[in-house]
Design a protein that fits this description.
Elements lengths: L2 E8 L14 H16 L4 E5 L7 H11 L4 H13 L10 E8 L6 E7 L1 E7 L5 E7 L6 E6 H6 L6 E4 L5 H11 L1 E2 L4 H16 L7 H17 L6 H6 L6 H7 L10 H8 E6 L2 E6 L7 E4 L4 E4 L4 H12 L1
Helix pairs in contact: 2-3, 6-10, 7-10
């Protein structure tokens, strides 16, 4: 899988780069890390370009670039200039704009990432401490991903993933105008509807196979979510064990694709909660077995404590 990539510094007065990054292991590894950080963020949103009379800058720029790949560097410069123009006069804001085109035949995609700098200590060849500048791939990362194939073939599909900048309202608005992001998908609602259907289907399975069935479903869905991909029910069914795959497909919500919410998936297999002085977590498979909840008295009954916890309680009582 090959990629075209370029980086610009988003800082007042800085010139824009005119040539793409050289292809190689270092640049490929960096781009994979940025993509991984983007996909790991729980607050990504999914939608599409606004259907206005005049398409947003990112959409028109991509169309020109795809028609003429030689326009790659110019396309990135137009995107960078749009963000630079949003900075207030005299602003000291600084970040790096990464723009790259993933040229995989089965899954072509375009990415725009806004990555702030991050300084930290380093050791030089003489083991002397110094300061070095790196990239902040944590909570301050912003990005846009466009699934090119779905954008071109299915205009109603949520082909755009969006993670806005933080802490700079002008830049956030410019990021929104750049992408024209609209029609956000409620992934939590999608996931809850899907998991309700999964639970109902599981009731028809042999009792000794239900937990394994649930785990297979959630493991597959979590991997899709981490890859920033929606759930395809047919593909999921093909990856499940000994079930009636056709019946499973028919029992699931018929709207596709289904965008997934990671928190909802994790809670489906595990109940958990914490306050300042109390934390409780247990597998959902133990509800109404070793763990029972009385809603009227708001009481949780646990039988068969974990050995380590039991020993701690016995030791405490013996004091």
């Amino acid at each position: 899988m090959s990629s075209l990539a370029i980086v610009h510094q988003i800082r007042a007065g800085q010139p824009l780069r005119s040539k793409p990054l050289a292809e190689g292991e270092a640049s490929a590894a960096l781009l994979d890390r940025i993509k991984g950080s983007f996909s790991s963020r729980l607050n990504r949103e999914h939608g599409r370009f606004a259907a206005d009379a005049e398409p947003p800058l990112l959409a028109s720029t991509l169309e020109q670039m795809l028609a003429d790949p030689g326009e790659f560097a110019n396309a990135s410069a137009r995107i960078a200039q749009a963000l630079l123009s949003a900075l207030d006069a005299g602003s000291d804001y600084a970040a790096y704009l990464f723009f790259f085109l993933q040229q995989a035949p089965a899954s072509p995609a375009a990415y725009v990432f806004l990555v702030p700098p991050k300084s930290g200590p380093a050791l030089d060849a003489q083991l002397q401490l110094s300061q070095c500048q790196g990239l902040d791939l944590g909570q301050n990362l912003a990005g846009i991903k466009i699934d090119i194939q779905e954008w071109q073939q299915n205009q109603q599909y949520a082909y755009l993933s969006w993670l806005p900048p933080r802490g700079n309202p002008s830049l956030t608005e410019a990021f929104l105008q750049l992408s024209g992001f609209t029609a956000g998908i409620n992934s939590q609602e999608h996931t809850q509807s899907f998991l309700t259907a999964v639970e109902e289907f599981g009731r028809e399975l042999p009792a000794d196979g239900v937990e394994d069935f649930r785990r297979q479903v959630v493991d597959y869905c979590l991997q899709q979510e981490r890859n920033d991909q929606p759930l395809a029910v047919q593909e999921l069914a093909a990856n499940l064990g000994e079930i009636d795959r056709q019946a499973f497909v028919q029992a699931m919500p018929q709207e596709e694709p289904i965008w997934l919410d990671r928190r909802s998936l994790q809670r489906y297999l595990r109940f958990s909660g914490r306050e300042q002085d109390l934390a409780i977590s247990f597998s959902s498979a133990q509800l109404n077995k070793r763990v029972r909840y009385d809603a009227q008295s708001d009481t949780l009954h646990i039988s068969g404590l974990p050995a380590a916890l039991r020993q701690q309680l016995l030791d405490h009582q013996a004091k």
